[in-house]
Specification:
Blueprint: E1 6-12, H1 16-24, H2 26-29, E2 35-36, E3 44-49, E4 53-63, E5 67-77, E6 90-98, E7 101-109, H3 118-139, H4 153-160
Antiparallel strand pairs: 1-7, 2-3, 3-4, 4-5, 5-6, 6-7
């Protein structure tokens, strides 16, 4: 792992299976507007947020209750000079048991500080993992992007870019 890849982690009082199931429920923590399947090896799905961000993702590694690796096959950002910055990057979810709890380590391999989107993406991923996904795991209800829902601060920044 490069020191410049974005990483964040959470520790929850849930089983690795519960964490895995929540991660693969992408509509429950990232966006309700996901099209496609999000849980099995070789599944592909499309994400979009208004006209600001779209991407196509393929699951290239799935180890139940341990690891999920996405490959961003296509990406479009409205707010960056290079509209395809995420293309070829690998958002990765690693799940491990630690002292009776479960750690979820998220690393977006390839998302580096050289990217124009880095600061916004870092803030957005931190919110999705530390807040929305953690709530989905611990309470059963995350805070994904939803049509007609008030925007988060990061979403406001994105839409103003």
């Amino acid at each position: 792992m490069s020191a410049t890849d974005f990483t964040t982690a959470i520790i929850v009082d849930k089983s690795p299976k519960e964490v895995f199931d929540a991660v693969t429920n992408v509509r429950g923590w990232w966006s309700e507007e996901i099209e496609g399947n999000t849980a099995q090896l070789n599944d592909e799905f499309n994400y979009h947020y208004e006209d600001v961000h779209r991407c196509k993702i393929k699951l290239i590694e799935v180890v139940p209750n341990q690891k999920i690796v996405w490959l961003v096959e296509e990406n479009y950002f409205k707010f960056t000079q290079d509209k395809t910055e995420w293309t070829g990057t690998k958002p990765t979810f690693e799940i491990t048991e630690k002292e009776g709890k479960t750690e979820l380590r998220f690393t977006h391999f390839g998302l580096t500080s050289e990217y124009e989107c880095f600061e916004i993406c870092q803030g957005a991923w931190t919110n999705y993992i530390q807040n929305s996904l953690k709530k989905l795991i611990t309470t059963g209800k995350g805070e994904p992007n939803a049509t007609g829902k008030p925007q988060t601060e990061n979403e406001k920044k994105l839409s103003q870019s």
